[in-house]
Write a structure and sequence with these properties.
Elements (H helix, E strand, L loop, with lengths): L1 H7 L3 H11 L13 H6 L19 E7 L2 E7 L4 E7 L9 E4 L41 H6 L10 H14 L2 H7 L3 H14 L3 H11 L8 H8 L4 H6 L1 H8 L2 E6 H13 L3 H10 E6 L6 H7 L32 H10 L2 H4 L30 H15 L12 E6 L6 E6 L5 E6 L4 E5 L5 E4 L2 H4 L9 H4 L1 E7 L1 E4 L6 E6 L5 E6 L3 E6 L4 E7 L5 E6 L5 E6 L3 E6 L7 E4 L5 E6 L5 E6 L3 E6 L5 E6 L5 E6 L5 E6 L4 E5 L4 E6 L6 E6 L5 E6 L3 E6 H5 L6 H6 L12 E6 L7 E4 L5 E6 L4
Parallel strand pairs: 5-6, 7-35
Antiparallel strand pairs: 1-2, 2-3, 3-4, 8-9, 9-10, 10-13, 11-12, 14-15, 15-16, 16-17, 18-19, 19-20, 20-21, 22-23, 23-24, 24-25, 26-27, 27-28, 28-29, 30-31, 31-32, 32-33, 34-35
Helix pairs in contact: 6-12, 7-8, 7-13
């Protein structure tokens, strides 16, 4: 019916594409007229070609229902929400709404050119049932996902197939061998799962034992999970394996290597392997030189292989927003103080308006009003002025001038310290603990005080100059405040930039917002159903982000109890979250060993970075917004160029999980803290200078990392027995570190 409709509407090109897709090459269209039902489905009379065009989504199970003359497309995607888009005839494209949820991660690929979808008012489901009723499934259809393993090969030949391919790859030329070796792991997993699914348990066991030793060392954890799946029943509830099945494993291979592989498999009639390659792998083919073993090793290791090159093509506004301008009254003693130090020059031009630091708009910055940001309050302006004054006294760091490090050790933290944050002006420090408490300390002589009770406040003269002093209750002054409210370990804490609020997230699935004026809980945000691993305030306040075990990151605003954006795409827990300095983007690190960069404006994923060999636990943006540093359980710190979407450096040295990363205020030095009880300082200027980001590198991902990163390491500082879980540079570039002393 669809083909007839296309022919009638004279849409030759679309007809061709659809024929190719459906493999209807001959003229097998009977002259049967359209049945009334299908005519109704194709937008009323069928005369209006654009009665609601829907994209053909391959991965998403979908169906179309005709509602009167309107066409509605329903796209369902594993757990989450199905969106229904009803489109009046002639209103352009009805794109099936994709499920928003932890595993709705298969973007429909557009078939051929955009015009392929012209006039098709049907979204073809993967089962091809177009009935009156549409079943919107909530759960991933496990049986459908797994039934792809039904194509039976001879179970006894699997080992022969695999070892044949292995022999072929190992005997191929060096330049192709490294690239083709990437096939070993995904093929091994799929062939093993196929054997298990078809209940050839003994063959599966011997297949696993024979070949699991050949896999790269960084897949050991995944193989441990795999080895426990020995029966068909085990596959039903296992998330990792479902992911492996539903998301295509991405391999990036040069055209020459791919042709070689294709020829070999076709000559050998090795259909079993060829089927898996076509069904379960996504081969991203590029023209040019094959990549070397080192280049491939740097980029692989994530749950779903590498990122497709398309994933990192979108434009990212990584520049900084222009600072607002305002006048700064300079005190006289300030001037004299500066003169004594002998550098009055710096201060003079800043006299009129300190905010004029960046008069010119950064060409890579997003438009100022791209996302709504909160207005600056008077107190914020005052704070900015203080910040500027501090900045004038800031120490310029570099290889010759390393920062002093002040370490806050939490002693006797038998409650188990699980999170730390320090305010921007370094006046308060907060700890989240496994006993579900949040503890706030003042690190300056100024004690923490609460606001007086309402009855006392009514007696205060509101016009007096020191009204802000008078509203504080001296009787409540103390160095430590304990906040009770969570019902599970607190995994993340974050102060708001204006120091009025504090966020904490916990295993209990909630994020709580606390007032630092009254030291009470103001809101509990419930959106995650599982533990929340991290939360962070935007550098402008108001917005904050959280990420958790449900594989999703959520963007919130303090005055909304529902999330504003849901960022779905990771294949495992979202373990850490960070705002970009311009607040338009959010980076998330995950246990699927990838880092994603999300656009706050529309919720799109604009970068996917692969290369870590273990779950990501720390993220830090450089102060100029151009680079991102990431740390993981593999002990490596990787550096990324956000604009080009490329890995530009690898810092090796830590021997355990890197839990803390922070750039100095001017971006000259990167500090990393780890479970190996050390803080290391790296030369960020040198790491980022003369980067090769020519078009070829960006197009193919041929990155050339220096063999060792020792010349970038400026210093290693051991603690006695304290893992480092937080780092913070003060406004004058003193480095503060924090962790809990562990006696063993």
């Amino acid at each position: 019916a669809v083909l007839q409709f296309l022919r009638r509407s004279n849409l030759r090109e679309s007809e061709e594409i659809l024929r190719r897709e459906a493999r209807l090459l001959g003229d097998d269209l009977g002259a049967a007229a359209l049945s009334p039902a299908s005519a109704g489905l194709l937008g009323g009379s069928g005369s209006d070609a654009d009665s609601g065009e829907a994209l053909l989504g391959r991965g998403t199970s979908a169906a179309a229902v005709a509602i009167g003359g309107n066409v509605a497309t329903v796209a369902t995607s594993s757990p989450g929400v199905a969106a229904v888009a009803a489109v009046p005839p002639g209103k352009g494209e009805a794109r099936g709404g994709c499920g928003v949820g932890p595993s709705s991660r298969r973007e429909p690929r557009e078939v051929g050119s955009p015009c392929a979808a012209r006039g098709l008012s049907v979204m073809l489901g993967h089962k091809g049932r177009l009935g009156g009723a549409v079943v919107v499934e909530d759960q991933p259809d496990v049986s459908a996902v797994l039934s792809a393993y039904n194509q039976q090969g001879d179970p006894t030949l699997y080992e022969e197939y695999y070892s044949g391919l292995k022999h072929f790859i190992e005997c191929s030329l060096d330049c192709h061998r490294a690239e083709l070796s990437q096939l070993f792991y995904p093929l091994f997993v799929h062939m093993y799962l196929e054997l298990v699914y078809n209940q050839h348990e003994s063959e599966a066991k011997s297949f696993f034992e024979r070949f699991h030793g050949d896999q790269e060392c960084y897949y050991q954890d995944d193989l441990r999970v795999l080895s426990s799946l020995t029966k068909k029943e085990h596959m039903k509830g296992n998330e990792t394996m479902l992911d492996f099945r539903t998301s295509k494993f991405v391999l990036r291979i040069s055209r020459d290597s791919y042709q070689l592989l294709k020829r070999h498999l076709q000559e050998k009639q090795n259909n079993q392997i060829w089927n898996i390659v076509q069904e379960h792998l996504y081969i991203d083919i590029f023209d040019g030189m094959p990549r070397s073993k080192q280049q491939i090793d740097a980029m692989v290791g994530s749950l779903a292989g590498e990122a497709k090159r398309e994933a990192n093509k979108a434009k990212v506004f990584f520049g900084l927003l222009k600072e607002p301008e305002f006048d700064v009254p300079l005190d006289d003693e300030d001037e004299e103080g500066e003169n004594e130090e002998g550098k009055p020059k710096k201060k003079k031009p800043k006299k009129d308006n300190v905010g004029s630091k960046s008069k010119k708009q950064d060409p890579n910055a997003p438009p100022q009003n791209r996302i709504p940001l909160p207005e600056l309050k008077d107190s914020d302006k005052l704070d900015k002025v203080m910040n500027m004054k501090e900045a004038a006294r800031r120490v310029r760091l570099g290889p010759e001038c390393l920062p002093s490090i002040c370490f806050y050790t939490f002693l006797n933290a038998y409650q188990g310290l699980t999170a730390v944050d320090i305010t921007d002006d370094s006046s308060m420090i907060v700890g989240g603990f496994a006993d579900s408490t949040v503890r706030v300390w003042s690190v300056t002589p100024k004690k923490l005080r609460s606001v007086k009770t309402a009855a006392d406040l009514s007696l205060i003269d509101k016009e007096s100059d020191d009204v802000l002093e008078r509203i504080m209750d001296e009787k409540t002054a103390s160095e430590l405040k304990i906040l009770y409210g969570h019902s599970g370990p607190v995994y993340g804490t974050s102060f708001s930039p204006d120091r009025n609020y504090l966020l904490s997230c916990s295993e209990d699935g909630t994020v709580r917002l606390w007032s630092l004026q009254t030291f009470t809980c103001l809101v509990g945000y419930k959106g995650h159903n599982y533990p929340v691993w991290d939360t962070q305030f935007s550098p402008y306040g108001y917005y904050f982000v959280s990420g958790g075990h449900d594989r999703v990151a959520r963007l919130w605003a303090t005055d909304h109890y529902q999330p504003l954006r849901i960022f779905a795409g990771h294949l495992a827990d979202v373990t850490c979250t960070r705002f970009h300095p311009n607040s338009n983007y959010i980076a998330t690190g995950s246990a699927d060993r990838t880092i994603r960069l999300w656009d706050v404006l529309n919720g799109n994923c604009v970068r996917i970075f692969t290369g870590h060999k273990g779950p990501i636990h720390s993220l830090a943006f450089s102060p100029n917004g151009r680079f991102l540093a990431t740390g993981a359980t593999d002990g490596r710190v990787l550096l990324w160029d956000i604009g080009h979407g490329l890995m530009v450096g690898e810092l090796k040295g830590h021997t355990d999980t890197v839990y803390a990363l922070r750039f100095s205020r001017d971006g000259e030095i990167l500090a990393s803290g780890s479970m190996d009880n050390t803080v290391r300082l790296w030369d960020a200027v040198k790491a980022f200078e003369d980067l090769e980001t020519d078009d070829f590198t960006t197009a193919t991902g041929h990155i050339n990392l220096p063999e060792n990163s020792q010349d970038l390491l400026l210093g290693t500082y051991m603690t006695k027995s304290t893992p480092v879980i937080h780092l913070h540079f003060t406004r004058r570039n003193l480095l503060l570190a924090a962790g809990a002393y562990s006696s063993q």
